[in-house]
Amino acid sequence: MNHFTYKNGLLFCEDIGVTEIAALVQTPFYLYSQATLQRHFTAFDSGFDGTEHLTCFAVKACSNIAILNLFAQMGGGADIVSGGELLRAMKAGISPKKIIYSGVGKTRAEMREALYAGILMFNLESPQELDRLQEVAAELDTRARVAFRINPDVDPKTHAYISTGLAKNKFGIPVDEAGKEYLRARDMENIEIIGVSCHIGSQLTQVDPFIAALRKLKVFISELVQEGIKIKYLDLGGGVGITYDDEQPPHPHDYARAVRAELSDLDCTLILEPGRVITGNAGILVTEVQYTKSNSGGEKVKRFVIVDAAMNDLTRPSLYGSYHEVIPVREDTNPTQEVDIVGPICETGDFFARDRMMPVTAQGDLLAVMSCGAYGFTMSSNYNSRPRAAEVLVAGDRFQIIREREEFDDLIRGESLSRL
Ligand code: LLP
Fold first, then answer.
1. Shared domain check, 251 and 329
2. Phi/psi at 21 (nearest 5 deg)?
3. Is 292 buried (19+), middle (13-18) or exposed (0-12) by CB count in 10 A?
4. Under a CB-based contact definition with an 8 Å cutoff, are residues 48 and 73 in contact?
């Protein structure tokens, strides 16, 4: 359930008409509903009431500091994967004691920053990374709290690009090689083992793969206990999917119930790293129709709706072939026609929808690309030298620009004419 609904024929975000915001902000822009963000955070987090747990929002999904700050106020932590995300989490007021650092390629500088900040835990993904962290922690004369990310070789049954828990994926350490690394880590002076982690993929629509991974982790943890290694934190990663089209992902409470049932007697604090399930359906991309045209001559007449947003603003359709619903901001019951909704970028892959039945649209109409709150703005770029869109947050009948639209000067910041 989200707060983007039609009222008297106009699309509203909570209590403000999208047209009203567009008139002031110009298009394209990302629009988030605070009530939806809060509702989704609570829906996820409350599923684990009664279980010692920490919900660390995956910053990569939606990293605006105003939004991270909302989660901080609700007791949330952060799952980060870079020095930049560390900065965002800290600026947003997330306690370092609730920050988890994931990712296969942490640099020395990034490790230093995170140690300096005093984050809760590094999720290590390779033997070399352990060696490097020991060195960096020794230089700073501190101890790094760690978990290893286990690759459980479980099929998450999702898009190949966002599957991370299969043996052939680059992530984590195979479960049968991880024991050796825990023993090595135990003997390192500047390393403190506190956890075991995994993250098997994103946009999962079934609970079973999560449970299959959890079972493997439980067996592994019991082996560690036999070696005298105590595990305080079990990090299950993120991955719960959302409905973009007709997917039927588990309700967060059903996911939580299944996980809690499987945990039973395990004496660990559970860490969760949800991203998409919290912000995905709490944000939309608003864009204006620039032109409509038809190209005949092929097998069939193709109708194109050319909008002012493009694959640089929202890359998911181009990159993964993802479905995003597109609806007119002015509710329309006109007869529908089949169109491609495309952007101005010079690539055929620059589209939001293909062969989609849509109400007839005209120049100047506003369209809303739905379910853009996760991996939308955060994956945007300046391709074709397009300034990145503005981000706007609505709370009730008020709104705030939480990220200004980039200006042309931003595009060339740091560049210079050659003096060679
Ligand atoms: N934890 C780790 C270590 C991750 O790598 C990810 C996502 C998450 C948590 C959050 O997963 P979520 O709950 O959002 O599924 N750009 C792709 C998704 C990439 C996901 C990468 N990792 C997309 O647009 O579908």
1. no
2. -70, -40
3. middle
4. no
Active site residue 346: yes
Residue 316, ligand 1, Cβ within 6 A: yes
Number of domains in the chain: 2
Q: Which of 226, 254, 272 is the last residue of a domain?
A: 272
Tell me if residue 299 falls in helix, strand or coil: coil
Residues 198-224, mean pLDDT to the nearest whole number: 95
Distance 142 CA to ligand 1 centre (A): 30
Cα–Cα distances in Å, from 28 out to 136, 147, 220, 227, 249? 43, 41, 48, 56, 29
List pLDDT tens digits, range 127-145.
999 999 999 999 999 999 9
Task: Name the helix (H) or strand (E) containing 48.
Answer: none
The answer to whether residues 383 and 404 belong to one domain is: yes
Q: Which domain holds residue 215?
A: 103-272
Q: Is the pLDDT of residue 369 over 80?
A: yes
Report whether 195 contacts 233 (CB < 8 A): yes
Residue 190, domain member (yes or no): yes
* 268 and 354 part of one domain: no
* pLDDT one-digit tens code per residue, 375-384: 999 999 999 9
Q: Which of 54, 60, 278 to mutate to test the pocket of ligand 1 (most atoms within 8 A of CB)?
A: 60
